[in-house]
Amino acid sequence: MKVIIDNAIPYIKGVLEPYTEVLYREGRDFRKEEVRDADMLIIRTRTRCDKALLEGSRVRLISTATIGFDHIDLDYCAQRGIAVTTAQGCNAAGVLQWVAAALAMLSASEGWRPEERTLGIVGVGNVGRLVEQYARAWGFRVLRCDPPRLEREGGDFLPMEEVVAQADIVTFHTPLDSTTFHLISDDVIALMKPTATLINASRGEVADTAALLKAEQRLMLDVWENEPAINGDLLRKAIVTTPHIAGYSAQGKANATAAVVAAAAEHFSLPIDGWYPAEVKPVGRTPIGWDEMCATITAHCDLAAESAQLKSAPDAFESLRNNYNYREEYF
Question: Which of 44, 244, 321, 327 is catalytic?
Fold first, then answer.
């Protein structure tokens, strides 16, 4: 048995070696000739898994240590009998705390309290639910848009047009698929208040860069089209600019690695059920007041410093991301 693993996935080295041959490769350097005789690929978003990479291989499982799967050709995998797993929900608390840091930054710079603002959430899945839960507790009026959940559950979900028109802050937490590509467009931005703030910590291609460049609204961005080659004008314009690390907490990364190890254990009957990296302490969700959060969040997630770092060295995007010092979750 042979497994190829993205070498930027933390905590995993040595875990599978007792049971299989393991190769570590950079995410963009998975080669067809090496994949040909691999049984499993453990990847991140930087590895495009499609016919070009997989044709003629014996791969039977692709496990991505990410919440999304837009880098995997699911139709091709289904046709070839290749199972695909994700680490869905692994980094939701990390993204929550990045969004909290963004909200605290806005509040400090603009002088408002949560009860004076309406927060719109577009995409209310694992991340959006947590943002909603904490935002309501902090006092925000919260409006939600999630068409799949509306169809399944009903409830008070609103059309996106109504959410973005009413909200003072809109935060996007959607997956990337054919329905959400360039969801943030000229038409959507035109509906927003000129004084509003747009936060995108989902996927870069959810937003049309050309539309963002024309927007009057403040922009807080963790994700970018065509990463790691990001648009310099947009980088200079946005007030928060981080290199796709919103979910990069130690616990989020540990959860993701545990998920891919669990997938390998289940699929190939390996005796490593329940593995979790010993060096990471799990953190449960606990309430935190708005004032306490604002007073403590910068010590855990300093968006001003991280934004300045990327603005000063945009060509270092991938290095900053791969060598990021994972934050510790604390609520």
Answer: 244
| 266 is known as an active-site residue | no
Tell which CATH classification among 3.30.390.30, 1.20.120.290, 3.40.50.2000, 3.40.50.720 matches the domain 92-247+289-322: 3.40.50.720
- 244 among known catalytic residues: yes
Query: Does the pTM exceed 0.85?
Result: yes
Whether 203 is catalytic: yes
- Strands 118-122 and 141-145, bridge-based pairing: parallel
Q: Is the dihedral of CA 245, 246, 252, 256 positive or negative?
A: negative
Q: Which of 46, 203, 321, 327 is catalytic?
A: 203
Q: What is the pLDDT of residues 17-65, one digit of tens each?
A: 999 999 999 999 999 999 999 999 999 999 999 999 999 999 999 999 9
Residue tagged active-site, from 48, 141, 182, 227: 227
Class of domain 2-86: alpha beta
DSSP β-bridge partners for residue 41: 4, 62
Q: How far apart are the first and last CA of the chain?
A: 40
